[in-house]
Amino acid sequence: MKPAVLVSSMLIAASAHADFFGATLEAGIYDPDAELTLIDDGLPASTTNSASMSGEKGSYYGIALEHPIPLIPNLRVQGTELVSEGSISTTFNSSVVNNVDAKLDLSHTDYTAYYELLDGLFWLHFDIGVTLRDYEGSATVDNDTKDFAAIIPMSYIAPAISIPGTGLTIGGEIKSLSIGDNSITDTTWKLKWDSGFIFGVEAGIRNHEVTLDDADGLDIESTNEGAFVGVVLDF
Fold it and tell me: If residue 10 lies in a helix (H) or strand (E), which one and from where to where?
């Protein structure tokens, strides 16, 4: 067999294999703005709590493993540093009566099992599955820190479309949970460029929102939204 034909055959075989078994690695920087709203139903009508927060730049990573075994879902693990700092002010009759430092750590790891319903058909991609989000964070108010940990199930959908001949893919990733007045919504939109040989880059916007209606009368709304940029390795 001629060398050129042999090399071509090897490349075709490698490409076919990648369609069945694959791994994707991603890592980058997430730089969100932060907002925090506190409403204490137990306070007098003339008393309010307000928070002034700023998000810290943090890192993120992701690992996805795909296989051709029917009925068994593909797996993705993602982690994000998500910390905001600032202050909480208590106001009575329009006058600030107390102002304390605050820090909220909502860092988490996501474990997602998903199926590829569309994988490049007419350049369309669509994944659907379930995410288990593992929060291991803390809340600090006036040097008093409370750690918390929770594993929360969320729905997962990821639509995308590739632009032929460019290596570009425009896609989204939506994870959500809503129970009564409590909800978590984590939405990502990104543009990814694939060089065609393992290496790629990605950039986009991510919005992480948490609404908590506490039984003790404290309502919490936290939003972290900002840009991210990272590198992608696709095997």
Answer: helix 3-20
Nearest partner of 50 among 203, 229, 180, 221, judged by Cα: 221
Q: What is the mean pLDDT of residues 192-197?
A: 93
**Contact between 233 and 24 (Cβ < 8 Å):** yes
Residue 74 lies in a domain: yes
Please choose, from the candidates 56, 39, 58, 64, the residue with its C-alpha nearest in 3D space to the C-alpha of residue 160. 64
Residue 224: closest CA among 39, 85, 77: 85
| Amino acid 143: pLDDT | 79
Q: Is 97 a member of any domain?
A: yes
For residue 128, what pLDDT band results from cuts at 50, 70 and 90?
very high
Q: From start to end of 67-123, where are the E strands?
A: 74-80, 83-92, 95-105, 108-121
CATH number for the domain spanning 212: value is: 2.40.128.90
Residue that is written with structure tokens 């139903």 in the block: 41
